[in-house]
Write a structure and sequence with these properties.
Layout lengths: L2 E4 L3 H18 L3 H13 L21 H11 L12 E3 L4 E3 L11 H4 L11 H4 L2 H4 L9 E2 L4 E2 L27 E4 L2 E4 L4 H8 L6 E2 H9 L10 E3 H7 L4 H7 E2 L5 H7 L3 E3 L1
Parallel strand pairs: 8-10
Antiparallel strand pairs: 1-9, 1-11, 2-3, 4-5, 6-7
Helix pairs in contact: 1-8, 7-10
Amino acid sequence: MAYQMILGDEGAFQTALRLLESYKKTNKVRSPTLMLLLALLYYRKGAGHAPEVPTIEDTEKPIKRKNLELAVDDLFTKTDPPDPDRPVLMLLTGSWLKDSRHPEQNTWRNPMDTQAGLGCVAPEQDLRIIEYAVAERSSCPHREEASRKCKLSGSACHNPTKKGGFGPTKVPSLPKALKPYERGFKIITLHPSALAMALGKGAEKIPIFPFLYALYHRSRLFGEPQTADLDRFTSDFFLDDSATSALFDTDPSSALNRQLLLCCITKH
């Protein structure tokens, strides 16, 4: 049975945010990085949305950093936010942020970089191998473990706390999903194994129904829809079952999903 949620209820919206925050606290998922990854899924070439983000297999020019930052903002911007100067919603924390048109706002830069994000400067021939893209960065032949720096670029690599910067890194690394170029970025991979890796070792999957309510409720990009369901989400993001199941708990009977569904569903 499919479950369709009726949007427009502020109480249900706040419940969805509370449930997502509870999920994040339990699983320690890196919210900005995960949201960037979701944006890459939405804007990837072939998904049908502009601006398209090419992959390393494509001949198109990389997407410029600022254009990508603004596109991510758009995906999570709400109409009628509590503060008009902070329209971008961080889904897993409930935080409201300024958009990237403000020079001081750098929400998506860390998730894009190599030090604490999805970036990797390795040669394309390495990055085309999925086993390399999802391997722990501490095992990368281009990375010097003692200094936590890339031998190819000299930039920091997998130093997520940005403190100290020397010696082994205990925090599990993120997948190598975004390659920086001189003029922008291309997607390395969005393979299901890379998506699952982004959640972190041992993390539970994201409860889909609180996530969908938080994403679509008062969404500017999606035109403030009145309902939301899993079928719409997989169509909008052009996701197959393997990608969806890598990130999301779609079981309506699981605890966090059930709590949200009790207040806002129709069955069809």
